[in-house]
Amino acid sequence: MEIAEKSGLTADMLKVFETLPNMYLILSPDLMILTASQAYLTAVNKKSTDVQGKFIFDVFYQDNDMPGLTDIQTSLQQVLHTKKAHQLPVTRYDLPDPADKQRLLERYWLSSHTPVLNTDGQISYIIHQTENVTDLIFTEHKAKAVLRPPSNEMTLSEQRFAFLLNAMPQQVWTARPDGTLDYVNEFSCTYFGKDINYITDHGWQAFVHPQDIDACLKTWQTALETGKEYMVEFRLQMHTGAYKWHLGRAVPLIENGQTTLWLGTNINIDLQKNNEQKKDEFLSIASHELKTPLTSIKAFNQLMQRTSDPEKLNSFIHKSAERIFRLEKLINDLLDVTRINAGKMIYNLEEFNFSQMLRDSIESVQYTSPSHQISLECENEVLYTGDRFRIEQVVNNFLTNAIKYSPGADKILVKSSIQLQNIILSVQDFGIGIPEQELDRLFERYYRADNSAMRFEGLGLGLFISSEILKGHQGSFWIESEPDQGSTFYFRLPLPSPENVGPEANENHFYKDNTISITYNPDKQRLEVDWLGFQNLETVQHGCQLLADRLQKTKVHKILNDNNHVLGTWSEASEWVGKSGFPMLEKSGLQYFAWVFSPIAFSQLSARKSVDIAEGNVITQLFTDLPSARKWLDSK
């Protein structure tokens, strides 16, 4: 009971969980069983005194060969690391027949783990839910039997018809002349997580979104009365609980002038609907943003026609020119996105003075934005080979954004330096800042951080275009920000490397170059890796291959992965690490991976993404300091 109280569970709450009709285990953060529902205890033939206060794997999963054991362990580790719910795949685990203990009954289970967080964002307890889905699996097996050779129970034509419908990679259904649903194909059963009897008994009304049901039924009734094609767009609830847009369509089979059958399909059009919504939103924003400067230009032109005062005339001309420049920028942004989409963004590479380009850009922006004082710290003059116009476009975008999103401040700090053979530029403002959850979305097309206190003009294209320009120069970008404190936007452009110095290596499995250091710790039986400087897809792939080679040589199963010295971002490699890097290391023997965060927010986002999508069974834990990571690995 003491453990339960620490998890914020009262005696009444525990009683509620125990009496629930479904199969539940309530676990503490260290995976001790706080309580179990009676349904769970009955299914496994145990009493509450047999399980309470005990480690879950000492009670229910003692058999190391049990199907799905690794999935359960990995799922719980993932929940502890990410603090997010996780659902496991369907697993077969047979149970003794109550009438005959020597006989096992075939059973299938669907399990999930859901963390409950306290006010500090930490896990209070975990709900382990298990559902018996044996009936659903048996129903699917029966449905698949339709694909077998013809039998006495089904004619050859019926077999072929069922085969064709089940082979369709979309929902196919039939209805009687009066509209009663009488068949759905195998794909439909899988999509909705229900057997054919449930779907035909309840009809589509059980799955249609409440807001769409009236229009759907009205259109269906009209089709039944007229005998004409039925077509409707509606949202259907899939087995996960989420609603997706579908195009429902059915045509009547008419024999001897009478409708004898309706054959229908439901096609998932959720992606198209979302794209249409985004397009409509963009067109709305674009029309508004383009209209604003155009309206101002027309107004100033009318004022110029009506005045003969030279001073006022010059003022109107200047203000009109500003609006024309703004309109031109919006149009150019749209043209750039079109070029990027078509893969036709062309770069004119030539050597230029980067520092002078930077001073020119600041002078131009400063002239049009007297409200902010832009200061520059430039460590040294540097020549760079690239497209000066496009790089200047990135700098201008960073500067204008800094000014736009700091209306209550009066200064912008720009710094330029050379770090590890890279030009590093930073633009710091002291404005509204950006929440962490929006940082990695800022460079998406048409995305603008939403701030309820104010709205800012723009199409949301500038940072997306900037990111593509930097990628075209093998560069990268990242952001450090804090709400109400301001933001610092960075970008990196690589310079030609000097003569390469060969990597250090010796018989003790030590390796070091300018991007990674790997040490074999024989006392702790692990590899200790320190990633250095700026990383990209190439360096990350190279480093992971080195680790895989040394795992095989040393026969160890643990890695201490230190990102403390990683700079900038390596987002371009995060997906590869999760889907290819982890499986490669696991194949080489890796079982436990302690990952110490970089202090850079964008590097942390990349690490989290890699862990979230990681494939395989490597148990990974994220840390903010090395001592905690070492302690965790020492316990393994």
UniProtKB/TrEMBL annotation:
Domain Histidine kinase, first and last residues per copy: 285-497
GO molecular function: phosphorelay sensor kinase activity
Coiled-coil region: none
EC number(s) reported in the record: 2.7.13.3
Pfam family name, one: PAS_4
PROSITE patterns: HIS_KIN, PAS
Name recorded for this polypeptide: histidine kinase
